[in-house]
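Appendix B, example 12.
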Amino acid sequence: MTNPTNGSDQDAGFKAVLEHLFELRDRLLRIVIAIIAVFILLSPFVQDLYNWLSDPLIRQLPHGEKLIAIGVASPFLIPFKLALMVAFLITLPYTFYQIWGFVAPGLYQHEKKLVTPLLVSSVGLFYAGMAFAYFLVIPMISRAAVAFAPSNVNPTPDIAAYLDFTVAMFLAFGISFETPVATILLIGMGVVSAENLIKARPYIIVGAFVIAMFLTPPDVVSQILMAVPIWLLFELGLLLSRVFAKHLERFRVEKAEHEAEQTIHDSTMPVAPTAAAAATAASAAATSATANDVSAWENDQHIFEETTPTQSTDDEAFRPLTDAEMEAELERMDEEFKRMEDNFRKEEQDKLDKDKQN
């Protein structure tokens, strides 16, 4: 028999899931609409956008040289592809705002205090990484590529290849500039301490060069230009973690207090009664109303026996049950609970049969 309480709980949980899905759909639609709106506004300027993007490379090419387009539709599609990427970057703060609006109601106050400033700073650091790549890294790589080109080679890259290269550099440096945020998060959440990070500094520096090796083109210049900022940003994260040590410590204390309160709440929360537990409670209530001492069950009838309470004396010593006695007692209790559950189900079935007959 289905418990109506459980059914209502399941319906409430299903409605809550649907509400979250509807909210997620609405927020995703807002993000998409914002990107499309900005893309439409940028559409008249797609040629200027690509000219601005290719300017660091054009300035390094021989006088009069330009980029080439190998694909038939590349001169038309590539600028619009760039405009779509720029629209996404422009709406990135709004995207994070919508994501935050969806996630924030499920966070606790101490989590919001830590995540909010880090979320804002992560957007700014990502933009800073892209600016660093555009104004410093890409011109240096372009100058080196043109300078070391053989005399029989005319360096005229394809517009699609150059767009892919710049996007990869923007993403690589934008993500690498998130190092301070990652450092503060690790320290603030207690995953690692600042002292352990200081001890592991040599390994982190080597790891920065390894990461730069995978994220940058296969040249030493771009690898150094990425590894050194990662290392410096790591040091900045350590410095900021010391500056905001009091705030991080307050966050850890609030987190520990909340976890302790949650543990106490879970331990004191009443458990939903099952059929066997309900049968036990109902039978115990019915039995205690009839007699004070109950000794046994037999079929559907209650057998009551008067018992004389015995009190222990000082001469009596406590003797714990042996393993065999404990197993026998547990088996007896298990059988008794099964009989009680069967009786309860039989009574419920009888009631249902009577209701159907009426």
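Residues 276-307+320-357 form one domain. DSSP finds 13 helices and two strands in the chain.
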